[in-house]
Amino acid sequence: MSKPCYIVGHHIISSLGDGAENFYAAKNNITGIHKVTDKSLSQEPFYGALFGDALRSKLIAKSAAYTLLENGIVHCIESALNQYPKHKEKRGVLVFTSTKGNIDLLNNDNTGNIPVNRANLAIMAEAINAHFGFSNPPVVISNACISGVSALLTAQKLLASQAFDFAVVAGGDLVSKFVVSGFQSLMAISETPCKPYDKSRSGMTPGEGCAAAILTRELPKGNKTAIRIIGGGQTNDANHISGPSRTGEGLVKAVSKALAKAGCAARDIDFINAHGTATVFNDEMEAIAFNRLGLSTTPLNSLKGYYGHTFAAAGLIETIISAEFLKQGIALKTLGLEEPGISKPLNLTMENKEVDSPKRVLKTISGFGGTNAAIILETVES
Amino acid sequence: MKTLCEISITPGKLEVNHAAVFQSKETLGPAFFKELYLEMNLNYPKFYKMDEISKLFFLGVEQLLKSGKWPSRDGNTTAIVAGTTDGCLESDKRHLANITNHPNLPASPATFVYTLPNIMLGEVCIRHRITGENTCVITQNNDSDFINHYAEILLTDEGTEFCIAGYVNYLPGNYICLLTLFARDLDL
Fold first, then answer.
1. Residue A371 is nearest to which of B112, B134, B150, comparing CB atoms?
2. Phi, psi for residue A278 in degrees, rounded to 5
């Protein structure tokens, strides 16, 4: 079994807004996905989940020394740290993650004042680390779409190895021409807002997001209820670099590992927040994997219909949202899903669903490079 | 943990356990990688589709697993942690050039899929049926202390017997691949 750690603070920003706005919108099944006609992102209109104008302006105004993405991540870290006042007297580490970071700095038409070398994730992370005056060097994880969960699990391992008292797990990604053109070339972007697990699903919707979570080794005194990470697993399909395995083998292994680490069985999981990108192959692979795992009757949702696929932020945002709704006993509706179209049954949430005395949630995610990750959260009362 | 083997690939040179096993006048990456591939007698045509850093990492792991006598049935219990500074920067630039120079044409999916630094780990997993944890870490320099520390954490996990760990970086004109094969120390 693995040594648990606690999530004692967090903040997210997405197309649904800043911080609490996300939880309000999600609970009311509001989507942040809209038609994007910005030609600097794509010649053809597409559906995307971009930061709203108010949030974008707020982030741009924050500091001219940082890019929009950096300001977004700094904003999340500031807010998350405020929820953990003891951080000043403790040994901490920043575990940073992004897939494409400041990729737009490499554009030839970039005339901003931010040095081009900040397109390098290590240098970007160092700038943010220095902003907060953290004394340890940051740890930068870039594991494609599983990055967010990967960073949480790396932080958990580093905390368990006693090297640090707390970790700031933070990161994010933007929707750039770079990624839109790439996913368009793979025919992976949906022509409608994405429809996870639906029989007419035809691809994912790219989204923007940043998030930060504070993880601690000990539950701070005075915290009445908390969420803790009790297990995780990370695996590779060893099958294909840009498509999921047909058998779900890698995901089955990741979830099995997470359950073993948490000392749980499948029946101990009260709900599942899966990846559900709404690509034909991903959702089908998940249906097969969850059936193999004996999890086909456990309430399951995908949150991609709310704010699209936010790449490195996805695992962080979805873990945080699932943790918050675990406390409230709600499995959110799978927005965008009308009629399931997968070959094996899943207990998909067609509406917000109340879960009886919820204790544990499983979050899973898969990505390019054949990566899979699973993380199990538990509510604790002291 | 114990060290089973170390390899390094630097311009025109392949070393195993600090002794040169192959040297070439060819020091430029693309040409040297092809020479190494042929020298290793691999017969794995997918190699030619990879971007340069993936080729470099792939070749390094081939030599590491062979020289380290890695039992090939143990893909389930093998993990990988790789550090890199520039990661997939060359593929990023190639994809950016494609979409900038040909705005009315679709981008190349074959280039785009390599614009993630962990893809090189995925290539190695496919080749050797490795299904354990893969982690790609971005560092400003070769941070072997952190990588080895992380390998040690991975090897405390009961399901992990072997760990491929190291640093790999590719820029035109300069490249390096330093890898170690660690095994769980059963004496502990």
1. B134
2. 80, 15
